[in-house]
Amino acid sequence: MKYALILFTFFAINQCNEKAKETHFIDGNAPGVANGMRVYMNALDENGRSIPVDTNIVMNEKFFFDKKEELESEQMRFLTIDGSEGNIVLLIKNENIQVNVKKDSLFASEVTGSASNKALEDFKSKQAAYTVKAKSFNTQRSTAMKSQDVESMTSVNNQWMAAEVDFKSYSTNLITTNNKSIVAPMILGELLKNKLVDSKGARELYNTFDPSIQNSLMATRIDMYLSKEESVAIGAKAPDFEGADPDGKMIKLNDVLGKVTLIDFWASWCGPCRRENPNVVAAYNKYQDKGFNIISVSLDRQGGERAWKDAIIKDKMDWNHVSRLQYFGPIAKLYNVNAIPSTFLLDENGIIIETNLRGQQLHDKLEELLN
Protein backbone atom coordinates (compact mmCIF):
# COMPACT_ATOMS: atom_id res chain seq x y z
CA MET A 1 0.00 0.00 0.00
CA LYS A 2 2.83 2.41 0.88
CA TYR A 3 4.60 1.61 -2.43
CA ALA A 4 1.38 2.18 -4.34
CA LEU A 5 0.84 5.50 -2.58
CA ILE A 6 4.33 6.69 -3.51
CA LEU A 7 3.78 5.72 -7.16
CA PHE A 8 0.41 7.45 -7.21
CA THR A 9 1.83 10.64 -5.74
CA PHE A 10 4.73 10.61 -8.17
CA PHE A 11 2.27 10.15 -11.04
CA ALA A 12 0.11 12.99 -9.76
CA ILE A 13 3.05 15.37 -9.52
CA ASN A 14 4.45 14.61 -12.93
CA GLN A 15 1.34 13.93 -15.03
CA CYS A 16 -1.24 16.24 -13.48
CA ASN A 17 0.97 19.11 -12.39
CA GLU A 18 -1.18 21.89 -13.80
CA LYS A 19 -4.36 20.58 -12.20
CA ALA A 20 -2.57 20.13 -8.85
CA LYS A 21 -1.31 23.70 -8.85
CA GLU A 22 -4.89 24.94 -9.01
CA THR A 23 -5.80 23.14 -5.78
CA HIS A 24 -2.55 23.46 -3.82
CA PHE A 25 -3.02 25.21 -0.51
CA ILE A 26 0.54 24.74 0.72
CA ASP A 27 3.53 24.21 -1.56
CA GLY A 28 6.69 22.96 0.09
CA ASN A 29 10.32 22.98 -1.00
CA ALA A 30 12.26 20.40 0.99
CA PRO A 31 15.89 20.33 -0.17
CA GLY A 32 17.77 17.35 1.18
CA VAL A 33 14.65 15.51 2.37
CA ALA A 34 14.50 12.00 0.93
CA ASN A 35 11.68 10.72 -1.26
CA GLY A 36 8.89 9.09 0.72
CA MET A 37 9.44 11.06 3.96
CA ARG A 38 6.06 11.88 5.43
CA VAL A 39 4.93 15.44 6.13
CA TYR A 40 2.30 15.79 8.84
CA MET A 41 -0.03 18.73 9.30
CA ASN A 42 -1.39 19.15 12.83
CA ALA A 43 -3.63 21.58 14.67
CA LEU A 44 -4.36 22.17 18.35
CA ASP A 45 -7.63 21.23 20.00
CA GLU A 46 -9.34 23.41 22.61
CA ASN A 47 -7.13 21.87 25.31
CA GLY A 48 -3.93 22.64 23.42
CA ARG A 49 -3.32 19.04 22.39
CA SER A 50 -1.97 18.24 18.94
CA ILE A 51 -4.46 16.65 16.56
CA PRO A 52 -3.74 15.37 13.02
CA VAL A 53 -5.23 17.26 10.08
CA ASP A 54 -3.55 15.89 6.96
CA THR A 55 -0.54 13.91 5.73
CA ASN A 56 1.50 13.90 2.53
CA ILE A 57 4.90 12.69 1.37
CA VAL A 58 8.00 14.29 -0.12
CA MET A 59 8.82 13.51 -3.75
CA ASN A 60 11.66 15.14 -5.67
CA GLU A 61 12.25 17.41 -2.65
CA LYS A 62 8.72 18.79 -2.89
CA PHE A 63 5.40 18.29 -1.11
CA PHE A 64 2.00 19.90 -1.15
CA PHE A 65 -1.31 20.00 0.66
CA ASP A 66 -4.57 20.59 -1.15
CA LYS A 67 -7.24 22.98 0.05
CA LYS A 68 -9.99 20.97 1.72
CA GLU A 69 -12.40 23.81 2.48
CA GLU A 70 -12.75 27.57 2.68
CA LEU A 71 -11.67 28.73 6.14
CA GLU A 72 -13.82 31.37 7.81
CA SER A 73 -11.06 32.48 10.16
CA GLU A 74 -7.29 32.31 10.32
CA GLN A 75 -5.95 29.05 11.73
CA MET A 76 -2.63 27.88 13.13
CA ARG A 77 -1.11 24.68 11.78
CA PHE A 78 2.13 22.83 12.47
CA LEU A 79 4.13 20.81 9.97
CA THR A 80 6.49 18.04 11.03
CA ILE A 81 8.61 15.86 8.76
CA ASP A 82 9.97 12.37 9.35
CA GLY A 83 13.67 12.54 10.20
CA SER A 84 13.70 16.27 11.03
CA GLU A 85 13.57 17.95 14.43
CA GLY A 86 11.11 20.65 15.41
CA ASN A 87 8.10 21.94 13.55
CA ILE A 88 7.04 24.66 11.14
CA VAL A 89 4.33 27.08 12.26
CA LEU A 90 1.87 28.17 9.58
CA LEU A 91 -0.86 30.79 9.80
CA ILE A 92 -3.42 29.90 7.17
CA LYS A 93 -6.73 31.14 5.90
CA ASN A 94 -7.36 30.99 2.17
CA GLU A 95 -4.08 32.27 0.73
CA ASN A 96 -1.57 29.97 -0.94
CA ILE A 97 1.42 29.37 1.31
CA GLN A 98 4.99 28.54 0.31
CA VAL A 99 7.28 26.71 2.71
CA ASN A 100 11.05 26.49 2.29
CA VAL A 101 12.16 23.70 4.59
CA LYS A 102 15.41 23.70 6.56
CA LYS A 103 15.61 19.97 7.23
CA ASP A 104 18.21 20.17 10.00
CA SER A 105 15.98 22.47 12.05
CA LEU A 106 12.40 22.93 10.98
CA PHE A 107 12.10 25.95 13.28
CA ALA A 108 14.41 27.83 10.88
CA SER A 109 12.23 27.12 7.84
CA GLU A 110 10.82 30.07 5.89
CA VAL A 111 7.10 30.60 5.29
CA THR A 112 5.75 33.12 2.77
CA GLY A 113 2.49 33.86 1.00
CA SER A 114 0.45 35.91 3.49
CA ALA A 115 0.79 39.07 5.55
CA SER A 116 0.41 37.11 8.78
CA ASN A 117 3.21 34.69 7.95
CA LYS A 118 5.44 37.58 6.89
CA ALA A 119 4.76 39.33 10.21
CA LEU A 120 5.59 36.13 12.09
CA GLU A 121 8.80 35.58 10.10
CA ASP A 122 9.85 39.20 10.72
CA PHE A 123 9.19 38.80 14.44
CA LYS A 124 11.18 35.56 14.63
CA SER A 125 14.12 37.28 12.94
CA LYS A 126 13.97 40.29 15.25
CA GLN A 127 13.57 38.06 18.30
CA ALA A 128 16.58 35.95 17.32
CA ALA A 129 18.71 39.09 16.96
CA TYR A 130 17.54 40.40 20.34
CA THR A 131 18.29 37.05 21.99
CA VAL A 132 21.85 37.11 20.66
CA LYS A 133 22.31 40.65 22.03
CA ALA A 134 20.82 39.73 25.41
CA LYS A 135 23.17 36.76 25.78
CA SER A 136 26.13 38.97 24.90
CA PHE A 137 25.05 41.65 27.37
CA ASN A 138 24.60 39.03 30.09
CA THR A 139 28.15 37.75 29.53
CA GLN A 140 29.56 41.29 29.54
CA ARG A 141 27.68 42.18 32.71
CA SER A 142 28.91 39.04 34.51
CA THR A 143 32.49 39.92 33.56
CA ALA A 144 32.04 43.50 34.78
CA MET A 145 30.52 42.32 38.06
CA LYS A 146 33.39 39.91 38.73
CA SER A 147 35.94 42.67 38.16
CA GLN A 148 33.77 45.20 40.03
CA ASP A 149 33.93 47.50 37.02
CA VAL A 150 31.02 49.82 37.82
CA GLU A 151 31.48 51.96 34.71
CA SER A 152 31.35 48.96 32.37
CA MET A 153 28.42 47.49 34.26
CA THR A 154 26.46 50.73 33.90
CA SER A 155 27.29 50.93 30.20
CA VAL A 156 26.18 47.35 29.56
CA ASN A 157 22.97 47.82 31.54
CA ASN A 158 22.13 50.95 29.54
CA GLN A 159 22.78 49.17 26.24
CA TRP A 160 20.70 46.19 27.33
CA MET A 161 17.85 48.44 28.41
CA ALA A 162 17.94 50.30 25.09
CA ALA A 163 17.87 47.01 23.14
CA GLU A 164 14.96 45.77 25.25
CA VAL A 165 12.99 48.99 24.74
CA ASP A 166 13.61 48.77 21.00
CA PHE A 167 12.47 45.14 20.80
CA LYS A 168 9.39 45.77 22.94
CA SER A 169 8.45 48.82 20.88
CA TYR A 170 8.82 46.84 17.66
CA SER A 171 6.81 43.92 19.06
CA THR A 172 3.93 46.00 20.42
CA ASN A 173 3.67 47.87 17.12
CA LEU A 174 3.56 44.53 15.28
CA ILE A 175 0.75 43.38 17.58
CA THR A 176 -1.40 46.47 17.11
CA THR A 177 -0.93 46.56 13.33
CA ASN A 178 -1.81 42.86 13.05
CA ASN A 179 -4.68 42.84 15.54
CA LYS A 180 -6.94 40.90 13.15
CA SER A 181 -4.45 38.05 12.88
CA ILE A 182 -3.56 35.29 15.33
CA VAL A 183 0.02 36.46 14.96
CA ALA A 184 -0.93 39.13 17.54
CA PRO A 185 -1.59 36.73 20.46
CA MET A 186 1.38 34.61 19.35
CA ILE A 187 3.71 37.59 19.75
CA LEU A 188 2.08 38.69 23.00
CA GLY A 189 2.55 35.17 24.33
CA GLU A 190 6.27 35.39 23.59
CA LEU A 191 6.54 38.75 25.37
CA LEU A 192 4.80 37.32 28.44
CA LYS A 193 6.91 34.16 28.42
CA ASN A 194 10.10 36.21 28.39
CA LYS A 195 8.79 38.71 30.98
CA LEU A 196 9.08 41.62 28.55
CA VAL A 197 5.60 42.91 29.39
CA ASP A 198 3.70 42.98 32.69
CA SER A 199 0.10 41.90 33.11
CA LYS A 200 -1.23 45.46 32.86
CA GLY A 201 0.61 46.13 29.60
CA ALA A 202 -0.39 42.72 28.27
CA ARG A 203 -4.05 43.38 29.03
CA GLU A 204 -3.87 46.68 27.15
CA LEU A 205 -2.44 44.86 24.13
CA TYR A 206 -5.00 42.06 24.45
CA ASN A 207 -7.76 44.67 24.34
CA THR A 208 -6.53 45.82 20.92
CA PHE A 209 -7.26 42.38 19.43
CA ASP A 210 -10.17 42.14 17.03
CA PRO A 211 -13.09 40.25 18.67
CA SER A 212 -12.58 37.37 16.26
CA ILE A 213 -8.98 37.03 17.48
CA GLN A 214 -9.97 37.31 21.15
CA ASN A 215 -12.00 34.15 20.58
CA SER A 216 -8.99 32.22 19.25
CA LEU A 217 -7.40 29.45 21.32
CA MET A 218 -4.17 31.32 22.01
CA ALA A 219 -5.89 34.60 22.90
CA THR A 220 -8.30 32.75 25.19
CA ARG A 221 -5.36 31.18 27.02
CA ILE A 222 -3.68 34.57 27.38
CA ASP A 223 -6.93 36.01 28.76
CA MET A 224 -7.13 33.19 31.32
CA TYR A 225 -3.49 33.73 32.33
CA LEU A 226 -3.99 37.50 32.68
CA SER A 227 -7.19 37.00 34.67
CA LYS A 228 -5.18 34.88 37.12
CA GLU A 229 -2.46 37.51 37.28
CA GLU A 230 -5.02 40.25 37.85
CA SER A 231 -6.66 38.26 40.64
CA VAL A 232 -3.41 38.47 42.63
CA ALA A 233 -2.17 41.85 41.42
CA ILE A 234 -1.55 44.79 43.72
CA GLY A 235 -4.94 46.18 44.74
CA ALA A 236 -6.76 42.85 44.43
CA LYS A 237 -8.31 40.93 47.31
CA ALA A 238 -6.06 37.98 48.09
CA PRO A 239 -7.90 34.71 47.37
CA ASP A 240 -8.60 32.70 50.50
CA PHE A 241 -7.04 29.25 50.79
CA GLU A 242 -6.77 26.41 53.25
CA GLY A 243 -4.02 23.95 54.05
CA ALA A 244 -2.74 21.65 56.77
CA ASP A 245 -0.13 22.87 59.23
CA PRO A 246 2.72 20.58 60.38
CA ASP A 247 0.40 19.06 63.02
CA GLY A 248 -2.34 18.35 60.50
CA LYS A 249 -4.59 21.20 61.63
CA MET A 250 -6.38 23.01 58.79
CA ILE A 251 -5.63 26.74 58.56
CA LYS A 252 -7.34 29.35 56.38
CA LEU A 253 -5.66 32.54 55.23
CA ASN A 254 -8.63 34.70 56.26
CA ASP A 255 -8.45 33.32 59.81
CA VAL A 256 -4.86 34.44 60.37
CA LEU A 257 -4.82 37.91 58.83
CA GLY A 258 -2.94 40.47 60.90
CA LYS A 259 -2.66 44.22 60.51
CA VAL A 260 -0.13 43.31 57.82
CA THR A 261 0.27 39.73 56.56
CA LEU A 262 2.94 38.13 54.40
CA ILE A 263 2.07 35.09 52.28
CA ASP A 264 5.40 33.37 51.68
CA PHE A 265 5.69 30.62 49.05
CA TRP A 266 8.82 28.57 49.67
CA ALA A 267 10.15 25.00 50.01
CA SER A 268 12.76 23.21 52.09
CA TRP A 269 14.71 22.34 48.90
CA CYS A 270 14.71 25.93 47.57
CA GLY A 271 18.17 27.48 48.10
CA PRO A 272 17.14 31.12 47.48
CA CYS A 273 14.18 30.65 49.86
CA ARG A 274 16.39 29.32 52.64
CA ARG A 275 18.88 32.16 52.12
CA GLU A 276 16.06 34.72 52.43
CA ASN A 277 14.54 33.10 55.53
CA PRO A 278 16.86 34.82 58.07
CA ASN A 279 15.73 38.18 56.69
CA VAL A 280 12.06 37.21 57.01
CA VAL A 281 12.66 35.88 60.54
CA ALA A 282 14.29 39.17 61.53
CA ALA A 283 11.35 41.12 60.12
CA TYR A 284 8.86 38.92 61.95
CA ASN A 285 10.68 39.21 65.26
CA LYS A 286 10.83 42.99 64.91
CA TYR A 287 7.24 43.65 63.83
CA GLN A 288 5.07 40.80 65.13
CA ASP A 289 4.06 42.77 68.23
CA LYS A 290 2.84 45.56 65.96
CA GLY A 291 0.48 43.32 64.01
CA PHE A 292 2.74 41.65 61.43
CA ASN A 293 1.79 38.07 60.65
CA ILE A 294 3.14 35.47 58.22
CA ILE A 295 1.67 32.38 56.64
CA SER A 296 4.19 30.29 54.73
CA VAL A 297 3.02 27.94 51.99
CA SER A 298 5.50 25.14 51.35
CA LEU A 299 5.80 23.63 47.88
CA ASP A 300 7.53 20.54 49.19
CA ARG A 301 6.57 17.37 47.34
CA GLN A 302 4.84 14.25 48.55
CA GLY A 303 7.35 12.40 50.71
CA GLY A 304 8.97 15.68 51.77
CA GLU A 305 7.01 16.19 54.99
CA ARG A 306 10.00 15.48 57.24
CA ALA A 307 12.25 17.87 55.30
CA TRP A 308 9.56 20.57 55.47
CA LYS A 309 9.15 20.26 59.23
CA ASP A 310 12.90 20.11 59.85
CA ALA A 311 13.48 23.26 57.76
CA ILE A 312 10.86 25.18 59.76
CA ILE A 313 12.65 24.31 63.00
CA LYS A 314 16.15 24.86 61.66
CA ASP A 315 15.32 28.26 60.16
CA LYS A 316 13.36 29.32 63.30
CA MET A 317 10.21 30.19 61.35
CA ASP A 318 7.85 30.60 64.32
CA TRP A 319 4.65 31.47 62.46
CA ASN A 320 1.81 29.78 60.57
CA HIS A 321 2.73 27.16 57.99
CA VAL A 322 0.64 25.12 55.55
CA SER A 323 1.41 22.64 52.82
CA ARG A 324 -0.43 20.15 50.68
CA LEU A 325 2.89 18.50 49.77
CA GLN A 326 1.91 18.78 46.12
CA TYR A 327 4.80 20.84 44.72
CA PHE A 328 3.26 23.63 42.61
CA GLY A 329 -0.19 22.51 43.72
CA PRO A 330 -3.60 24.19 44.03
CA ILE A 331 -2.57 27.07 46.30
CA ALA A 332 0.42 27.97 44.10
CA LYS A 333 -1.81 27.81 41.03
CA LEU A 334 -4.41 29.99 42.73
CA TYR A 335 -1.74 32.66 43.14
CA ASN A 336 -0.18 32.03 39.73
CA VAL A 337 3.12 31.15 41.40
CA ASN A 338 5.53 29.45 39.01
CA ALA A 339 8.81 30.22 40.80
CA ILE A 340 9.89 30.57 44.42
CA PRO A 341 10.50 32.42 46.63
CA SER A 342 7.35 34.38 45.91
CA THR A 343 5.59 36.64 48.41
CA PHE A 344 2.44 38.73 48.74
CA LEU A 345 2.06 41.45 51.37
CA LEU A 346 -1.54 42.10 52.50
CA ASP A 347 -3.24 44.79 54.54
CA GLU A 348 -5.67 44.01 57.36
CA ASN A 349 -8.51 43.55 54.85
CA GLY A 350 -6.56 41.03 52.80
CA ILE A 351 -5.84 43.47 49.96
CA ILE A 352 -2.52 42.88 48.20
CA ILE A 353 -0.32 45.93 48.67
CA GLU A 354 3.10 44.65 47.53
CA THR A 355 4.63 41.53 45.98
CA ASN A 356 8.04 39.88 46.12
CA LEU A 357 9.73 42.21 48.59
CA ARG A 358 13.21 40.98 49.51
CA GLY A 359 15.89 41.96 51.98
CA GLN A 360 15.79 45.55 53.19
CA GLN A 361 12.80 46.32 50.97
CA LEU A 362 10.60 44.19 53.22
CA HIS A 363 11.85 45.94 56.36
CA ASP A 364 11.37 49.39 54.82
CA LYS A 365 7.79 48.62 53.81
CA LEU A 366 6.92 47.21 57.23
CA GLU A 367 8.44 50.27 58.88
CA GLU A 368 6.26 52.46 56.67
CA LEU A 369 3.09 50.49 57.39
CA LEU A 370 3.48 49.72 61.10
CA ASN A 371 5.35 52.70 62.56
From TrEMBL:
It is found in: Cell envelope. Its main location: other. InterPro entries: AhpC/TSA (IPR000866), DUF4369 (IPR025380), Thioredoxin-like_sf (IPR036249), Thioredoxin_CS (IPR017937), Thioredoxin_domain (IPR013766), Thioredoxin_ResA/DsbE_sf (IPR050553). The keyword RNA-binding does not apply. SUPFAM superfamilies: Thioredoxin-like (SSF52833). It comes from the Bacteria. It comes from Nonlabens xylanidelens. The lineage of its organism: Bacteria, Pseudomonadati, Bacteroidota, Flavobacteriia, Flavobacteriales. This is Peroxiredoxin. One of its GO terms (biological process) is cytochrome complex assembly. One of its GO terms (cellular component) is cell envelope.
